[in-house]
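Task: complex structure prediction.
Instruction: return structure tokens for all chains below.
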Amino acid sequence: DQQVKQNSPSLSVQEGRISILNCDYTNSMFDYFLWYKKYPAEGPTFLISISSIKDKNEDGRFTVFLNKSAKHLSLHIVPSQPGDSAVYFCAAYNQGGKLIFGQGTELSVKP
Amino acid sequence: DAGVTQSPTHLIKTRGQHVTLRCSPISGHKSVSWYQQVLGQGPQFIFQYYEKEERGRGNFPDRFSARQFPNYSSELNVNALLLGDSALYLCASSPPGARDNEQFFGPGTRLTVL
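Output:
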């Protein structure tokens, strides 16, 4: 049972444009969401998070939006840079306080 | 400062064998978690240890076990390896009192079971 879903395995964007990565979840009890970024041969690194009491959190070029009624969150990267090319994972905390990850979306930013 | 380190980097085993993976957390971090990442999927939680005690366990068979040592390093053991155990095994550490958004991941150990 995939409680956190990233339905797009890959995304290709031109440098300077906006990248939008999407994530859906099924458990309405999730109260904290995170995005991780992973380069090949490295572990995931924390990027940005959002609490369920907010609908938006911004950090530089990265903004996460949360739509609780739709059980949907998205990560916006503006402007996209070639160095942003990586696999992005959406994750949420379950009731036991453990991280549940989505399948990941591979972002490719073309120069 | 050194990040989370894991050894070995790569490992090849055959079915039925046993494997031990090692993790050293960031200095000062007392919590260590283990994840399995199968190709094309996100990391799946296996275990969490804090102060040498198991604090959580994911949906993995008893062939998987772990422990944490007094210096907070950790080992993940997998017995009777199956082909499906082939994956990237990630270790993450977090500082005392932190929520898991402060987990710091190591580069992982790539296990191939033939």
